[in-house]
Amino acid sequence: MIVSDIFLGEIPESLTQQLCQITELLKCNTISHDPLNLQWQQTEHHKKILLHYVSDPKLHIPNLSAELLADGKHLAFCPQLTSDTESLLIANGFHGGLSFDASIIEIIEAFKNLDNNKLYFSHDAMSHYIQSRNRQPITQRQTELLSLTTKKEQQVLSLVCQGLSNEQIAANLSISINTVKMHIQNIFKKTNVSSRGQLSYVFTQV
Fold it and tell me: What is the DSSP letter of 20?
């Protein structure tokens, strides 16, 4: 059973039809067109998954707002899904990646993983990402950026780097979701970092 609301972003019509059939089969609440993200923002107290079509990660991802990626779960459909593409998605705060021609079984499995607060990436991509991060020593930049943040912001930052959602961070620290968002925005301003993924990339060794 999938309890998350499924939001369909700017996805090709052929894939949209298939996804609607799957969500109907799973009896999910589906929002197929929300250009201003109004309904997305209004469901901040519910579990939700936003589906993206990422034709070119290097061009598409920078255009996504940090605030959007910091909220809910995000699943990308890519024409060509390689380990490098998946690693880029992981680094930028996505929770799963699928090829454009993914099977119904794969799509359902991805939905289930994200609904249960799990990532959906290939083992090769996860291994590549973890190993690449482990090879990077703590840099002077990391130390400098940490010195700009308060202890509470560092707690939030640590949980962001562990891949926790705003809801999970709020529960972990016994604070409201709005307070979590405030801390994250303050961190963005202080560190001149513009996305959740970049924070994870910079602070992964801290």
Answer: H
Backbone angles phi, psi at 53, to 5 degrees: -105, 115
Residue 123 is predicted with a pLDDT of 86
Identify the top-confidence range among 156-160, 181-185, 193-197. 181-185
66 contacts: CB under 8 Å, gap ≥ 6? 184, 188, 194, 195, 196
CA distance 11 to 3: 22
Instruction: Give the DSSP H/E element, type plus range, for residue 14.
Output: helix 13-26
Tell me if residue 190 falls in helix, strand or coil. Answer: helix
What pTM did the predictor assign? 0.66
| Tokens linked to 29 | 């609440």
User: What is the largest distance, in Å, between two alpha-carbon atoms of the chain?
Assistant: 51
How open is the CA angle 126-71-55, to the nearest 5 degrees?
55
140 to 9, 62, 98, 126, 143: CA distances (angstroms) = 39, 25, 36, 26, 5
